[in-house]
Amino acid sequence: MGDKALEATTLNNIGKVYDDLGDKQNALKYFNQSLPLSKQVGDKALEAIILNNIGGVYSNLGDKQSALKYFNSSLPLSKQVGDKAGEAATLNNIGLVYSDLGDKQSAFKYYNSSLALSKQVGDKAREAATLNNIGLVYSDLGDKQNALKYYNSSLALSKQVGDKAGEANTLSNIGSVYFKLGDKHSALKYYNSSLALRKEVGDKAGEAATVNNIGLVYDDLGDKHSALKYFNSSLALSKQVGDKAGEATTLGNIALLERDRGNLQAARTNVEAAIKIIEELRTKIDRQELRTSYFATVTGYYKFYIDLLMEQHKKDPSQGYDALALHISERSRARSLIELLTSANAKILKGANSELIQQERNLLQQIDARETLRQNLENSPKKNDLITKASIQRHTTEIENLFSQYREVQAKIRTTSPEYAKLTNPNPEKDILKLPQIQQQLDKDTLLLQYSLGKERSYLWAVTPTSMQVYTLPAQKEIEKVAQGFHTDLPQATATDLAIKSAKQLSQLLIAPVADKLHRKRLVIVADGALQTIPFGALADITSNTALNSVEKTPPALPRTLPLARGGLGRGVYQPLMINHEIVNLPSASTIAIQRQKLANRQSAPKAIAILADPVYSATDTRVTGKPENTQLGSELEIERSALNRSAKSLKRNGWNRLGNTEIEAKGILKLIPPATSLQALNFDANYDWATSSTLNQFRLLHFATHGFVNQEQPELSGIVLSLVDKKGKPIRGHLRLGDLFNQDYPAELIVLSACETGLGKNVNGEGLVGLTRGLMYAGAARVMLSLWQIDDEGTSVLMQEFYKEMLQQKKTPPSALRAAQRKLWENPKWRSPYYWAGFTVQGEWR
Prior knowledge:
Elements: H1 4-20, H2 24-40, H3 44-60, H4 64-81, H5 84-100, H6 104-121, H7 124-140, H8 144-161, H9 164-180, H10 184-201, H11 204-220, H12 224-241, H13 244-260, H14 264-283, H15 288-297, H16 299-315, H17 321-331, H18 335-346, H19 354-378, H20 386-416, H21 418-423, H22 435-440, E1 446-452, E2 458-463, E3 468-473, H23 476-489, H24 497-510, H25 515-518, E4 522-526, E5 583-585, H26 589-600, E6 607-615, H27 622-625, H28 636-642, E7 651-652, E8 655-656, H29 660-670, E9 678-683, H30 688-691, E10 699-705, E11 708-709, E12 719-721, E13 735-737, H31 738-741, E14 750-754, E15 761-764, E16 768-771, H32 772-779, E17 783-787, H33 793-809, H34 814-827, H35 834-837, E18 840-844
Helix pairs in contact: 1-2, 1-3, 2-3, 3-4, 3-5, 4-5, 5-6, 5-7, 6-7, 7-8, 7-9, 8-9, 9-10, 9-11, 10-11, 11-12, 11-13, 12-13, 13-14, 14-16, 16-17, 18-26, 18-32, 19-20, 23-24, 29-33, 33-34
């Protein structure tokens, strides 16, 4: 009859049947036949449905990036034709993708939008599905009561509309909550009810999930034989329908079971198969932040594998299982950063589409403008007014939408760059070092200490160029409790006895096992979890009597009975670890190899140092108004400044406080350098235009002295504050954010952010701290020096001037210079507290 519209509809329906039966490849075949016909006849509503269905297939196959692409193509078409039910379905599906990738907040956002539309159009089946998915997020977040509340609401609606597939899904999820609550009997009851419905409707993917869950119950009850039977059935079903994520989950469960039965090799075979699938799924995700959030959900597999290998090592120490465990530790950390550094080496931006790069910059500018407005509203006297609150929420929503566009553009820049195509490699491990390669990066005076924190036990590898030993440490919870207390207590002007006590406790946990290996060596720390936020140099030195084998010729350690100043540094003996040891931090051992590849053939920049300091934050600043301010010693202004720190805590209702000591700091450093080889950008010149100018790539050292701020939820918004007004007091763009750093070319030997909390960020499982560090490394820094807490303005100024004297006059490396400067402050009763000197750490190249 030539009815192409009906032909398209029928092809789509056939595809949907295959999809429901778990035959994803046939489903795709029919959907892809239907799609061009729907476009040909101009049926946008049908086109939206087909795109949504294709996205659903890719999502179930584990290709979340492709799923998002199709869902995002479907959504505007549904909106265009006014199909609110279709829009609700696609919003729900997008929420599912974000939830599966570990981004629970985005999932909530999409689910709630879907739920409102489903209720509006009376689509109870879709409403039930979305309620179920919201319950699933609550369950993943550990809120079991809210999970049950949403599941029960979903179940009632599914029964009301006769949606047996939806009912089965929710019954299985309720069973999982009861299982987590320890009620095995109720869990089995719900799982078996779900299983019968799954079989009735032919939902093989769902059947695989429920059968896996029943296996978990039997495993927990000690019936390993029955558990393995269910796991194997689940595995076969997952393979049949192509559910790679489900397959990995079940393989992991079999690995756990086999280890419990003492079959270590069988356990290893299964967990390796699971990790192989995880790596494959991970490489299909182009958007960096989604790749990172997905990896955070699967780091448990790597931790289990490490633990398993160490168990094999105890049984047979001669087989190198401990070295393999170190390699797996490397595979489990900072993977996105390693890929970023690799792509930076390839300079993928140089071959990227110029229009896309311009789009990215425009979006960053819009994000900065909205975030500045939101920040001003949040710090205004009227922040609790209903109108102001609504305005803050509007800006928040706009920022989230802009970020979504920004990340899509970033992914396009990467994937469309000719240079990026050259990076594509079927072996995701090519940049991950093994023990011999790690040892090649070290020298005889350097000891690598790599930590891996685990649920039941943790591990520490101590590596030199010629040896490697591994030590078993307490569980993550025990170590992090002490570490978090240390990080909380230490940044005080007068460090308390409690802080010193926790410094000693932490040293006993982290350093004592390798005390005989230290010998005044340089310590390269690869930390994990909460250990990433602590300054190892401030830990108590419990090895001061070890034989001298120093990296440099240093004077003898200070006497252990040194008098402690400022009345609060502790009654007991405390000598910080940095007295005898130079400390360097790395996100992973593999990152240093990539950096060295990049630096090997790089020409050193011709000029010495560029300093941006003491920006102008407000139109009321004396540098704008011309009105003199009282600067006599002891004035209220000086007293106020002496208590300032360089963080967002200093953002008051009238804007950021001026940091008077940053100018002193800058001028003190510049005295050490011939004027012809330095750049001084103070006051109004310390602005965004200078910070992003190509002029800065002529300098070996870049120094920023100003306020800093960290955004734990959206690390891209973290940054430093430059001049916010021009000479006439008019507002200008002044925040140099993480997103901006990715667009800079800073081929510097060292970049120093002399501002608060610049070394912190969002702590992501398996990735570490996502913050300014990676932006600076991507931009080209061989080393970065950043802070771990809210640093004192005056104390930091003193520390920085000492640091540059050591580096420029005494010709010391940055890590060695920082140690020497910290020692000088430690020797001065005024600056004795670790609050003043311990906050800064060096990451990157130590040579």
